[in-house]
Amino acid sequence: MSPPSRRLQTKPVITCLKTFLISYSLIFWFTGVILLAVGVWGKVSLEAYFQLASEKSTNAPYVLIGTGTIIVIFGLFGCFATCRGSPWMLKLYAMFLVLVFLAEFVAGISGFLFRHEIKAVLGDAYKDAVTNYHFPDPKSSAVDTIQTTLHCCGVDGYMDWNTTQYFKDNGIPASCCKENTVCPDEKLKDLDKAHDIVYDTGCFLLVTDLMESNLGIIAGISFGIAFFQLIGVFLSCCLSRYITNNQYEMV
């Protein structure tokens, strides 16, 4: 059994570590909420862009939502483990943080390294969707959403629609019409008359730049949260060790 003075010196350290780890766990819990929000935002705001590059709806937003939910749960578990002062719970919490760190680090690097490839794929997919536009095809609906949201028309401009079968049958899609502008069918079928009522900016650069910037943001968030896990791993391991040593000293 160790001297009482040594145990008294250990208790303030344990209390301090518990305070830091509880604060960390609450912040960790909040990062889970942020991932949840990013996942929901991605599902709502970027679904049209993901739809272009895939025949089916992408699972990426659901991955973020699922990861955020798990982090929220384990953030609460970290608070509980810290309050209980259970060494095995703290070690389990540290192992989970290591796994989250590795997963988010790999995801962040992948997003950063392949952002240009993703940009190119999305750009080609958008060109193909415009060429084969046929409402109400899912990819055609995505084109409509993009043109309406970004206030653009066609790949490089509204003139691109001139080479499509849809233009020959129906004219320029109504989603190219400027806000608060009436677009009669006869004007949409005439490129000269359509000039004043449709957006003249192409969507290609807007779409690819938007996706590249968003991928950069997501990669940055992943890197930031990943390295933040290392603090939790350090605190959990230190607290577990001090509690274990203190228990042995009391024997």
UniProtKB/TrEMBL annotation:
GO cellular component terms given for this protein: plasma membrane
CDD domains referenced in this protein's UniProt entry, alphabetically: TM4SF2_6_like_LEL (cd03161)
Transmembrane segments: 21-42, 62-80, 92-114, 215-239
Record's bilayer topology term: Multi-pass membrane protein
Main location class: membrane
Disulfide bonds: C153-C176
Keywords recorded for this protein, A-Z: Disulfide bond, Glycoprotein, Membrane, Transmembrane, Transmembrane helix
Compartment(s) of residence: Membrane
Pfam families membership: Tetraspanin
Keyword Transmembrane assigned: yes
Family, as annotated: Belongs to the tetraspanin (TM4SF) family.
Annotated protein name in UniProt: Tetraspanin
Annotated organism of origin: Coregonus suidteri
